[in-house]
DNA sequence: ATGGGTACAATATGATCAAATTTTGCACTG
DNA sequence: CAGTGCAAAATTTGATCATATTGTACCCAT
């Protein structure tokens, strides 16, 4: 059986003039966040140095960072791979995400202006189109953008950081779920969130966020327990 | 003004046969966790390679990991230092710690046996002695051990991981508080936690944990806003 | 103050060594 | 004679270091 190889054409989308280790980190980070790596897939240092055309030191640094993020796991025998989640992991993540992200949206609700809400609604509109088109990659990106944008208004960098880590953990698994069941089965509570934001009802925003999270994570949970 | 230099005698307490980058990580990690580094203090790669007598690659890996942990911060211009917290950071950490760690102790309560509770009580007894002796380092270590031990029974690695990160963030600041006000002003709710554990009352365990956290963090918060 | 030069620290690479996995080959058995 | 299993070699990957290069800040002269 042949697993997906690290693509040789990772052009390391250079964002201006950032150090190489940062570019490698960002590249891998979005691959994981958007499920371009399969859970369980091994990630090798040499494979990355070859495919990215950079030295090993920056690759090592990026990998250590991602391990600390929970985006990659160290397998004991110096092997690194994309995490495989079990149902206990998912339960913990449901709890943590609801705790942290509800608070983030509660705080954001207090700071959002009308045109900020319009912007969020715009993202959600595009998101609906992705779902209709069955574009899994686009769905994952826009869903993440919706939440990230919302949370950014909370001005809570530490909570944000905790939330980001959790997203990195389930990114690959969410992709697998979408790939198996399609995008049709992906309902969300974004409309509820937007309505509550317009009404200035922070508690309802938090509640809708919690429901959105629970729905999405429960999907992963079911997919895993049936595997 | 001269900040504390990285000690040259960091003997890298070798735990068996771990790779150097892991040893460096663990060494720095406990220095930060137990406040042996001062908030704001710069941390240089070269300084560590010199004082630890190892190459730069493993040092770089350890530092990247600690940055991802939130235990160190990247200052933009290639500088790395120990984080300085503001009151907003503390508020976020109070919320996150109470959410996560209450749940950890709630889960642990269900799994603890009688002799496990004895063990916890033993740690707390030693902790009291440290407070009486004014031994700040000992206090920090045993307080951490008390919580870590309790949480370890929760069998919740992901929640545990989130909690650990938060501890790394406030370690240096807590040390400063203790150094300024002494250990006398450090009350805790450990007795309440142990009593509730013996009664098998998980909710009360969670509540006492939340109070313990709030008390401790509020201390840091006051110290910061008065600075 | 401002601007150039110097010193120092960070970044990145390639070389080297060590460890682990995979492959290969041989012997032994049914 | 074919198939299985073990063992050793070969290959792949990881870990560390030494060195060259680049960027940043500090200092001094103007």
Structure description:
The structure is a homodimer of 227-residue chains. Chain A contains 9 helices and 3 strands. With 227 residues, chain A is mainly α. The first copy, chain A, folds into 2 domains: 20-81, Arc Repressor Mutant, subunit A, CATH 1.10.10.10; 87-225, Up-down Bundle (Four Helix Bundle (Hemerythrin (Met), subunit A)), CATH 1.20.120.530. In chain A, strands 1-3-2 form a 3-stranded antiparallel β-sheet. In chain A, strand 2 and strand 3 form a beta hairpin. The interface between A and B is medium-sized, with 30 and 30 residues. Chain A binds a DNA duplex (30 and 30 nucleotides) through helix 2 and helix 3.
What is the CATH topology assignment of the largest domain in chain A?
Four Helix Bundle (Hemerythrin (Met), subunit A)
Note the overall shape of chain A. globular
Strand order of the largest sheet of chain A: 1-3-2
**Quaternary structure classification:** homodimer
Largest interface: A-B, 30 and 30 residues
Beta percentage of chain A is: under 5%
Q: Measured on Cα atoms, how large is the radius of gyration of chain A?
A: 18 Å
- The rounded distance between the terminal residues' Cα atoms of chain A is 18 Å
Regions with little confidence, pLDDT below 50 for 5+ residues of chain A: 1-9
List the secondary-structure elements of chain A in sequence, H or E. HEHHEEHHHHHH
Report the count of strand segments of chain A.
3
- Note the main sheet of chain A: 3 strands, antiparallel
Helix content of chain A: 55-70%
Number of alpha- plus pi-helical segments of chain A: 9
CATH architecture of the largest domain in chain A: Up-down Bundle
Structural class of chain A: mainly alpha
Tally of structural domains of chain A: 2
The CATH C-level class name of the largest domain in chain A: Mainly Alpha
CATH superfamily of the largest domain in chain A: GntR ligand-binding domain-like
- Average pLDDT taken over every residue of chain A: 90
């Amino acid at each position: 059986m042949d697993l997906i190889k690290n693509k040789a054409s990772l052009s390391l989308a250079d964002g201006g003039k950032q150090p190489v280790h940062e570019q490698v980190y960002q590249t891998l980070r979005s691959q994981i966040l958007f499920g371009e790596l399969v859970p369980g897939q091994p990630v090798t240092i040499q494979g990355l140095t070859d495919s990215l055309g950079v030295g090993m030191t920056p690759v090592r640094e990026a990998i250590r960072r991602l391990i600390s993020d929970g985006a990659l796991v160290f397998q004991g025998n110096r092997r690194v791979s994309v995490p495989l989640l079990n149902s206990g992991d998912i339960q913990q993540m449901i709890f943590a995400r609801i705790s942290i992200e509800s608070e983030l949206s509660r705080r954001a609700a207090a700071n959002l202006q009308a045109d900020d809400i319009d912007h969020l609604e715009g993202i959600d509109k595009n998101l609906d189109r992705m779902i209709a088109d069955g574009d899994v990659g686009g769905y994952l990106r826009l869903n993440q953008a919706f939440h990230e944008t919302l949370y950014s208004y909370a001005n809570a960098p530490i909570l944000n950081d905790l939330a980001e880590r959790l997203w990195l953990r389930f990114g690959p698994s969410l992709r697998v779920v979408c790939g198996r069941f399609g995008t049709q089965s992906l309902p969300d509570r974004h409309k509820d969130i937007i309505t509550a934001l317009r009404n200035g009802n922070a508690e309802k925003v938090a509640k809708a966020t919690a429901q959105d999270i629970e729905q999405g994570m429960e999907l992963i949970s079911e997919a895993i327990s049936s595997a």
